[in-house]
Design brief:
By secondary structure, the protein is an alpha+beta fold. About 40% of the residues lie in helices and about 20% in strands. The strands form 7 sheets. The protein has a 7-stranded mixed beta sheet.
């Protein structure tokens, strides 16, 4: 597939029917762009915006040349701001790799106006907000969101980062260690390791060849100048207002937003700084073509083709490389992927641009190989270049490009709101890429078909301008990369391109016209009864309720989109019975997805997303997108599930894929691996990866075939239809689903899904040790709630909001235990829990446990501090009362209420009411009961914990679960 590659490198880490109806018909046409006249002292610019976008925009250039985009949205759930500095890792001095990233860290630690190092973070957190930043190759992006009433004081604090930061000397050593910890945390990350090797092969004069993260060595003090001196010089040289873009989104009118912004950001210094837009070539002339082989940490097999190209942003209005990526990464009939799957050589093909710099980038074709594909890599190489040659000869086509234009126009016209912080962060970056009038539309702009430009772009995709990379466990490596110790080998040239049998090549063809593209869009706006003022219940209505099937329905009246969602959940006794049932369902669904791939891909391109996923008691089908052709898609899906017919060859390949994925999960980031153990420990049915692997290894093709014919026996169906459907249409599809999926009954009961509660009284806390191959110490503490009641959940939410900034500040900023320190949600069905996470390269696991214990004990007195309590209480209430921002988000909320909260559709509002009833006294009592009982705790650690005698060690999963009391849920 044509994979969208974001330039962002950081984290950024949510009813009625009637006989008489009214139709609003929206004919398909090029999107109407509504001009918004922007006037300031210097220029008047018309921003192109969607006709359905109700926000108001103003583009400004301040006196110091800082570019500003103001967004007024009276309905926004939160206010947000982002500032993007057009300076990144590529501007690092050659002897100070990682300096831009280190500067990003230091900028958060106090300013002249707000000198306390944690003041900004604490202010944002106590007012219901969040914040982050990332350093990419060519930019550094800072962003936050916050309660609407606090935008101005937040901007005041934020602006000082770029006006008068302190860069306090006492925090330099701490942040050096934090950056080093971030580097160490991903030493075994295969993506980081691959780019470490690429840097060694690049032209050393190209800035992309520099190490971007930084560590204790690159950020060490040097004779005659400290790292702080170098950082200050870097800041004063590069952080100039004319290289900055600011986006501010709030409820206030544009004039009010401008009054907030102008006096604060006009003081950002403008410096005499010029950044070259031209770099030396990405690779030296004698480097390519070349063949690279990498031995990965995980069991991965991948063949990639990397072609240096000019910066694709220079062609953003026509996007020739996106067009080429679409054709090479196509997954439909006649595609490269279709042929490679038939041959048993590959499971996926992706094409995209990456490593985008000011003057160049890489165009990549990535192929996920099977073990047989590793042996056939030379033949695959030949097929890839044959496909590229076919594009040169007959790939440029105006009607294919027009399909891009049509879908891009539709997506722009009916785009849904994204979270405010995500919106401002991406727009701030876009301001450096697109012309001002295209800031809102540039990523979806396909202005004109340009055949010459497509051919010119294809000219870079040649066999003498390529780095071919094989990543596989079978690789015999003789080199080790400098920073990540990644094994690899390199040789000049690539394998000689061979002529394959004509019969094989004849299976390749360019895509046909996409029959899923909407031809006419109608938005169903409701019934005549509603127009006459009848009171209509907007919550989902239970329209089918029998022994085996429940169906809910509501029609959208708020977002007015020609889109809809279909959610189906099939619950099977056979799946829920044991680990064998659960993992066979995973394999069955993988085979169904594999079988449907060619049919589904055009639908995805036409704006209809399909997801079919297995769970511990069955599987889910989710469809979201333009509603007109969803019926055709769901029919095909149910036909594939009902028939359950697969070949033994695909069974063997997908079984091996699933085994590999299960084994690889233990090599994810360590804190993520531990967190994934919590449902296994505290829920039933739930199975560990080890149990699933054992059950899958012994599964035969005959057993899977028998399972496919039996897993729908005694199944039950929950369904929900929402959006652009009438009640009669939903009923018709529901009856079809019941007929197709619930075909036989044998009166087997569905095992109940339960949460397992830690004992109320215990002599010692529990400890689960999970073996992880990582040099860091990793500790997590689960604080489990007492019940799933609204009041208990409300107290848990408020305590966590109060703890989050303090936990981060004390254990990361002050104690410097590590880069990964967090207090995060860990809900299990309807029970809210909190997970405290520390991953440290410097502290032992015993020390981390002691630090967490000490932190929780110290908070007993201050948890209900009157000022902090009331501010955080109100911000949490505001957050819970935020309406959904899009049709998809509203659908997810409704479906979550159906599947988790017993049709409790007003749960968020009830939680908000419960939070409003919390008093300092009730919060202090709750904290003492839930958070300070050392014996009612579940600790998780890696293998390094030595002193285990003070814990109940969980060494047998079944025995542990038998000691816990279940909290039953529907």
């Amino acid at each position: 597939m044509a994979k969208v590659c974001s330039k962002q490198r950081g984290a950024i880490s949510s009813a009625i029917y009637a006989a008489c109806i009214c139709l609003l018909t929206l004919p398909l046409a090029s999107v109407a762009l509504e001009p918004t006249e922007i006037t300031d002292q210097q220029k008047s610019i018309a921003l192109k915006k969607s006709e359905n976008d109700k926000r108001e925009y103003r583009y400004l250039v301040l006196e110091n040349q800082l570019r500003v985009l103001l967004i007024s949205d009276p309905a926004t759930e939160k206010s947000a701001a982002a500032l993007d500095v057009n300076i990144g890792a590529n501007q690092n001095p050659r002897d100070r790799e990682g300096l831009a990233h280190f500067l990003e860290h230091m900028l958060f630690l106090g300013t002249e106006k707000y000198p306390h190092a944690g003041e900004y973070q604490e202010f944002i957190a106590r007012h219901g907000g969040s914040y982050n930043a990332y350093t990419a190759a060519e930019n550094t992006n800072y962003f936050f969101d916050i309660d609407n009433s606090q935008l101005e004081p937040a901007l005041d604090r934020f602006s000082q980062f770029f006006v008068a930061p302190l860069f306090s000397p006492e925090y330099v050593e701490r942040e050096r260690k934090a950056v080093h910890s971030e580097y160490l945390a991903k030493l075994k990350d295969d993506g980081r390791r691959e780019w470490d090797i690429y840097r060694e092969l690049m032209n050393p004069e190209h800035p992309g060849a520099k190490f971007s993260v930084g560590n204790l060595t690159t950020l060490a003090d040097r004779e005659g100048h400290s790292v702080r001196d170098d950082m200050l010089a870097f800041y004063e040289q590069h952080y100039s207002s004319h290289l900055m873009n600011l986006v501010v989104l709030g409820r206030e009118p544009l004039d009010v937003l401008e009054k907030m912004v102008r006096p604060r950001f006009v003081n950002v210094p403008q410096r005499d700084t010029n950044i070259s837009a031209k770099y030396p070539s990405l690779f030296n002339a004698d480097t390519l073509p070349a063949s690279l082989e990498i031995k990965p940490e995980k069991e991965l097999r991948n063949l990639s083709f990397s072609f240096p190209i000019p910066n694709p942003d220079d062609f953003y209005q026509t996007k020739p490389f996106s067009y080429i990526a679409h054709l090479l990464g196509h997954e439909g009939s006649g595609s490269l992927l279709s042929l490679l799957k038939r041959l048993g050589w590959a499971d996926a093909v992706y094409a995209n641009t990456t490593l985008e710099n000011r003057s160049d980038a890489l165009f990549q074709v990535n192929i996920q190989l099977t073990p047989q594909g590793v042996r056939a890599r030379d033949q695959i190489t030949s097929l890839v270049f044959y496909c590229i040659e076919q594009l040169r000869e007959r790939g440029a086509s105006s009607w294919r490009y027009n399909e891009f234009q049509v879908m891009a126009d539709l997506d722009f016209r009916f785009q849904e709101k994204r979270p405010p912080m995500e919106t401002v962060s991406e727009l701030a970056q876009s301001m450096s890429i697109y012309k001002p009038q295209d800031i809102l539309s540039g990523n979806l702009l396909y202005a004109d078909y340009d055949e010459k430009l497509i051919q010119k772009s294809l000219s870079f995709l040649t066999s003498d301008n390529v780095l071919v990379t094989l990543t596989a466990p079978e690789v015999n490596a003789y080199r080790i990369s400098r920073l990540y110790s990644a094994p690899y080998s390199l040789r000049a040239g690539i394998s000689e391109l061979m002529e394959l049998k004509p019969a094989v090549r004849q299976e390749l063809s360019l895509p046909d016209k996409n029959l899923f593209i909407p031809k006419r869009l109608t938005v169903k706006t409701g019934s005549m009864l509603e127009q006459q003022g009848a009171v209509i219940n907007r919550k989902p209505e239970l329209i089918v309720n029998n022994k085996n099937t429940r169906v809910w329905y509501t029609q959208d009246r708020e977002f007015i989109q020609p889109r809809a969602t279909i959610n189906l959940r099939v619950k099977s006794p056979l799946v829920a019975a044991n680990a064998a049932g659960a993992v066979r369902e995973q394999l069955f669904i993988a085979l169904v997805n594999d079988q449907l791939g060619e049919f589904v891909y055009p639908a995805r391109l036409a704006g209809i997303e399909l997801s079919i996923e297995a769970n511990t008691r069955g599987f889910d089908i989710k469809i979201f997108g333009y509603s007109g052709r969803q019926g055709l898609l769901i029919n095909k899906v149910m036909e594939a599930i009902r028939s359950g017919k697969f070949t033994q060859e695909r069974f063997a390949l997908l079984k091996e894929n699933l085994l590999r994925n299960l084994r690889n999960q233990n090599k994810d980031l360590p804190y993520q691996v531990l967190a994934k153990q919590i449902p296994v420990l505290q829920m039933t049915p739930a199975w560990s990866n080890a149990q699933l692997i054992t059950a899958l290894e012994s599964t035969t093709f005959e057993q899977l075939s028998q399972f496919a014919g039996r897993h729908l026996i005694d199944a039950r169906l929950d369904a929900f239809f929402y959006g652009n459907y009438f009640r009669a249409e939903a009923l018709k599809l529901a009856v079809l689903a019941e007929h197709e999926l619930l075909n036989r009954q044998a009166v087997r009961e569905l095992p109940e899904q339960k949460i397992l509660m830690l004992p109320q009284s215990s002599d010692k806390p529990w400890l689960y040790v999970h073996n992880l191959e990582h040099s860091d110490s990793i500790v997590e503490l689960l604080i489990q709630n007492n019940s799933n009641s609204v009041d208990d959940n409300a107290h848990m939410l408020l305590v966590r909001q109060l703890l989050q900034p303090a936990f981060y500040y004390q254990l990361r900023t002050q104690k410097q235990l590590g880069y990964i320190v967090a207090a995060i949600p860990a809900p299990l069905l309807a029970v809210e829990n909190t997970l405290l996470v520390v991953q440290s390269p410097v502290a032992s696991e015993e020390d981390i446990i002691n630090e967490i214990d000490q932190f929780l004990a110290e908070k007993i007195e201050g948890i209900a501090n009157s000022e902090e309590f009331s501010i955080n209480q109100q911000s949490l209430i505001n957050e819970l009362r935020e309406p959904a921002r899009s049709l998809k988000e509203q659908s997810d909320r409704y479906w979550n209420a159906i599947t988790v909260y017993e049709e409790h559709f007003s749960r968020r509002l009830d939680l908000a009411d419960a939070v409003s009833r919390i008093t300092p006294e009730s919060l202090a009592k709750y904290y003492r009961t839930i958070f300070t009982d050392k014996n009612r705790r579940l600790w998780l650690s890696s293998q390094k914990l030595i002193e285990r005698e003070n814990f109940f060690l969980i060494d047998d999963l079944l025995s542990y679960k038998q000691q816990l009391q279940p909290l039953s849920t529907p």
